[in-house]
Design goal:
Chain A: It is found in: Cell inner membrane. The complex is a heterodimer. By secondary structure, chain A is an alpha/beta fold. In chain A, 36% of the residues lie in helices and 19% in strands. Classes of the chains: A alpha/beta, B mainly alpha.
């Protein structure tokens, strides 16, 4: 078994268009959620989101690339550029043949679907642009990263709703840990803030119309975000041999299925996944200092997740910190675990635990240290990142400080 | 109308080839112009939009398509024929 470290990170999300700006926003407890700018917003009931603003694709891509890249692919490529740039790796020879890309996305090219449905259904046209399929397919982001950086190894996309990027990163971890590849590019991306993408979520009646307040007694639902985060996972000896900066070590991963309900989370399923992740990492619960929660701000998730953490850690649950950064960047759906892994890296590397902002009233059913409203300084050795998706699909990662 | 079709087709092809329309000569092939398979289907889409016509073209068997893409001139001739058929004056 090889050890796996992270040697590059990149992101674009509502809090910032790179890692330093995102982490400083998290450390300041800044909220990236606000009124959204999408076509036909006046027909939406939910009009807030964690939208990427002040973003001009023309700044990064030429006209032909823009014709071919959905917004989620653009986000994937921008985050990958930062991550691979930071890693300092170039992919030639044997490394190029084994290194690949595993990305998570729930919806893929949602904006492309949306725009072209308008063309054929609303405008009644009988012809769409030839690039609709290569633009909307869920693997477009992974494939374009692979082409851009000559990554010829295992390359695919995982779609497990809100666990997509944790599943993706877990599988990249497995590929490096097993020795199948020395380097994998991994993470997730989502760009679902379009009229159709928001309208679909409205239908479920789980969305807040004013703010995302995870764990707070007066929470009233989730808020969608968008963006991407991409990482370079590298075999530790390979990284050390070339003197790369190590951001954190990935030490464990577990994934399970509740096999019970298509939308309701399961306390038992969540607890079993966290426990399995600790076993996989060969650590005991009391080594964990921080958990980046799934923390969607819905009634069901937050109390179930807190109960699962209490079940897994016993009395020690009161000694660890658990926060939901979705309160700041929104729920990035298939990209959310990747954006949230940044908060874990900040806790481990910089000793700053990101807060749960918008916290107003304690909820006896969420009676853990949720790091309300203000970041905290602490020495964290091990951090977990939870994802508990619709469909009952759970994926938890464990990281250790380098 | 004749000149219009030739000019407009040259503009569409030039855009795909990232050239000035004046640099597109009638005897050039798509290969000469560096237009690949995706560029070809995008050109056909743009031609359909510009002239409001249906172009019979299957990328799986371009040589058997009624739409002759062997040169810019053949494309212009094919478009002219389709416009005449589909929009009789």
């Amino acid at each position: 078994m090889k050890r796996v470290v992270i040697t590059g990170a990149g992101t674009i999300n509502a809090l910032g268009q790179d890692v330093p700006s995102t982490l400083s926003a998290m450390a300041e407890g800044r909220c990236g959620i606000g009124p959204i700018n999408v076509r036909d917003v006046e027909r939406l009931n939910v009009r807030i989101g964690g939208q990427v603003t002040e973003y001009d694709p023309d700044e990064y891509f030429n006209r032909q690339q823009i014709a071919l890249y959905d917004r989620f692919t653009q986000f994937s490529l921008l985050a990958a550029r930062q991550a691979i740039g930071q890693s300092g790796l170039t992919f030639i020879g044997d490394l190029s043949m084994e290194a690949g890309v595993v990305l998570g996305t729930a919806g893929g090219g949602v904006n492309t679907w949306d725009e072209n449905y308008r063309t054929v259904y609303e405008e009644g046209k009988n012809r769409v642009h030839p690039f609709v399929v290569p633009k909307l397919m869920n693997n477009a982001g992974a494939s374009h990263i692979s082409m851009e950086y000559n990554l010829r190894g295992p390359t695919y996309t995982v779609a497990t709703a809100c666990s997509s990027s944790n599943h993706a990163m877990g599988q990249a971890f497995h590929l490096v840990r097993s020795g199948a590849s020395r380097v994998m590019v991994t993470g997730g991306s989502e760009a679902m803030l379009s009229f159709g993408g928001i309208k679909a979520w409205e239908g479920l009646r789980v969305m807040s119309r004013d703010a995302c307040r995870p764990f707070s007694a007066n929470r009233n639902g989730m808020v969608q975000g968008e963006g991407a985060a991409i990482f370079v996972f590298e075999e530790m000896e390979h990284a050390r041999a070339r003197g790369a900066e190590i951001l954190a070590e990935v030490i464990g991963f577990a994934m399970t299925s509740d096999a019970t309900d298509i939308v309701m989370p399961s306390r038992k399923g969540a607890a079993q996944t966290i426990a399995a992740c600790l076993r996989d990492a060969r650590i005991s619960g009391d080594e964990v200092g921080y958990i980046n929660a799934h923390g969607t701000g819905t009634s069901a998730n937050d109390k179930t997740e807190c109960a699962a953490v209490a079940d897994t850690f016993g009395p020690y649950a009161d000694n660890l910190m658990i926060s939901s950064t979705k309160s700041m960047h929104g729920h990035v759906i298939g990209g959310t675990g990747a954006v949230e892994l940044l908060a874990c890296i900040m806790a481990l590397k910089d000793g700053i635990v990101a807060p749960t902002i918008g916290y107003e009233e304690p909820d006896p059913e969420c009676a853990l240290d949720v790091v309300p409203n203000e970041a905290r300084e602490a020495k964290i050795d091990v951090a977990l990142s939870n994802a508990f998706a619709f469909g009952g699909l759970n994926a938890v990662l464990a990281l250790r400080s380098a | 109308m004749t000149d219009d079709i030739e000019t407009r087709v040259a503009e569409i092809i030039a855009e795909q080839a990232v050239l000035e329309p004046g640099d597109v000569r009638m005897d050039m092939t798509l290969e000469d112009l560096g237009i690949d398979s995706l560029g070809l289907v995008e050109s056909i889409f743009a031609i359909e939009e510009a002239f409001d016509i249906q172009v019979p073209f299957n990328a799986n068997e371009p040589q058997n398509s009624a739409f002759d893409i062997s040169s810019v001139a053949s494309i212009v001739a094919a478009v002219r024929q389709l416009v005449a058929q589909q929009h009789p004056a």
